[in-house]
Amino acid sequence: MLSPLLYLGSLGFGLGVLVDTGSSGGVGVPYALFVAPGVLAANAMQAGVGEATWPVMGAIKWQRQYHAMLATPLAVVDVLLGHLAFIVLRLLAVSVVFGVVGALLGAFTSWWTIGAVLVATLCGAAYAAPVMAFAAAQENDQGFAYLFRFVLVPTFLFAGTFYPVDQLPAAIRPVAWVTPLWHATQACRDLALGSPDLASVAAHCAYLALWVAVGVVAARVVYSRRLVR
Known about the structure:
single chain, 0% strand
C-alpha cells in the first residue's frame, strides 16, 4: 500500500503539479496519468528482481529449501517452475494493490487498467526468470550489488518511466528500447490511458514473454548444474 502512495504522491501529484503548471514536457496528458502506468511496471520489475535474487541464493546455499524439495519426487524443473509461479502470484498481488491505490488516487481512470496490471505482472516475470538464472550461478551475493547498480537502477531511470524516451539522446534510445521495462511501460501506458492500440500492446507482451522463456531455459540449465550432483 505504501509503495504506490509514495510514488504517486511524490511524483504524480508532487512533481506533477510543477510539470503540469510549467510545461507539458511533451507528454500530452496530466503528468500523474502519464507516470502512473510506468511506475506500475517499474514497481513490478523491482519486486520480481527482489524475489529472484536473495531468495534463490538462500534456497541453494543458506536455508537450502531447494535441496529439501529435491529429496522428494520433484525434478529440478518442478522446483524452478514452482518458485517462478510463486513469484508471478506475488507480482500479481503487488500490481493489483498498486492499481487499486492508483485508481483511488485518480491516477488510473480507465477499465483498461486491468490489462495494465496483467502486463506489469508479465514485466516482473520477464525480469525474474533471467535473474533467477543469474542468482543460481552466484557463489555469494556480491553480484547482486552490481545487478542493482548497473542494470536495475539505469533501467528504472532511462526506460521511459518518467518521461518519453524520445527526449533522450538518439544514441541512447536503442538501449532503452531493448529493455523489457520500456515495452511494459509503453503497453501499460497505452492501456491505462484508455485507448490502446491492441496490436502494439500484443507485440510488447510477446517481447516480454520471450524474456520469460529465455530466462526459464537459462535458469533450468543453471539450476541443473548447481542442484544435481
